[in-house]
Design goal:
The complex is a heterodimer of chains A (about 170) and B (about 120). With about 170 residues, chain A is mainly alpha-helical. Chain A contains 9 helices and no strands. The longest helix of chain A is centred in the middle third of the chain and has 26 residues. Chain A is globular, with a radius of gyration of 18 Å. Chain B has a domain of about 30 residues. Chain B contains 3 helices and no strands. At the A-B interface, helix 1, helix 2, helix 3, helix 5 and helix 7 of A face helix 1 and helix 3 of B.
């Protein structure tokens, strides 16, 4: 029996959820502080899921970083490392200026100082980095969305191989 | 088991980055961001008609008596919709510019010969 949920479609669904969460989390005055904070914490968990789904690619490109790997994959990898560092700083600084999530758990933090400015700066950098991340994967997004209405003709292994070529793992 | 191991690696990496950031901020290596709350105070009128915070001799602004620290929740609602659109616009703009360039770069690389012709 053919399943609708191919690896690419699962990735697309998770990535779309992450992007919608990103848009809401970037607008704390629209969503309200509590939603902003809890959604951002959940965002961290969703990113872990995203990384786990792309684990093979991460391991392969990291191993071949100084060997035979496409330039595009190197650029991608560098961008992903920057994204991960930046996201960690966004979440950490966000927790340290938390007004709703941590106090709700009974944890009081001393707000202000450098953390607030760092949170703003890293969040703005995250917006730029995620724009670049999407731009670098735009071809995959268009192709996967374009295939949504089509029946599956290829095996999961073939689809994974095609995704590897797309992402520059040779 | 595999997933737990991989998740631990991700969390450890995040913990390392977080720890380094925390140490850098506490050591004062990351500076220049100490004006967050002050900037908020300066940008908006004080609540309940209290006096606006004025910088003291050291250049820091003390909160007037009876004044609570301002949160970004005190900002006018007019920000809201524009704030929701901002990330979408920024991402769209970056994708519109970078995606075609990146696609061109990859196409060029694919069409480039990897070795010179044998009889040249």
């Amino acid at each position: 029996m053919r399943t609708f949920w191919t690896p690419s479609r699962i990735n697309l669904a998770i990535d779309l959820s992450i992007f919608i969460a990103f848009l809401i989390a970037m607008a704390p005055r629209t969503s309200g502080i509590a939603i902003h904070e809890w959604l951002s914490i959940a965002f961290g968990a969703a990113i872990i899921a995203h990384l786990l789904l792309h684990w093979q690619w991460i391991v392969q490109v990291t191993r071949r970083l100084f060997g035979h790997v496409a330039v595009s994959a190197r650029i991608n990898h560098l961008l992903n490392v920057l994204l991960f560092i930046d996201l960690t700083v966004v979440i950490l600084s966000g927790l340290l200026i938390s007004e709703a999530a941590l106090p709700a758990l009974g944890i009081q933090v001393e707000r202000g100082g450098a953390w607030r400015g760092l949170h703003d700066l890293s969040a703005n950098a995250f917006m730029l980095l995620i724009g670049l991340h999407i731009a670098l994967h735009w071809h995959w997004i268009v192709r996967t969305v374009g295939r949504l209405g089509h029946k599956r003709h290829r095996s999961p292994a073939a689809l994974q191989a095609a995704a590897d070529v797309e992402e520059g793992v040779e | 088991m595999k997933i737990l191991g991989r998740t631990s690696v991700i969390l450890l990496a995040a913990l390392l980055i977080g720890g380094l950031t925390f140490a850098a901020v506490n050591a004062g290596w990351i500076s220049g961001f100490d004006h967050g709350p002050d900037r908020d105070r300066a940008a908006f009128q004080p609540l309940d008609g209290a006096q606006a915070a004025q910088p003291d001799a050291a250049g820091t602004r003390a909160l007037p008596a009876g004044e609570r620290e301002r949160s970004f929740r005190d900002r006018p609602d007019g920000f809201a919709f524009a704030e929701l659109l901002k990330p979408l616009l920024v991402v769209t703009l970056i994708v519109a510019v970078v995606a075609p360039l990146y696609s061109l770069l990859r196409k060029r690389r694919r069409t480039m010969p990897t070795a010179p012709p044998a009889n040249s």
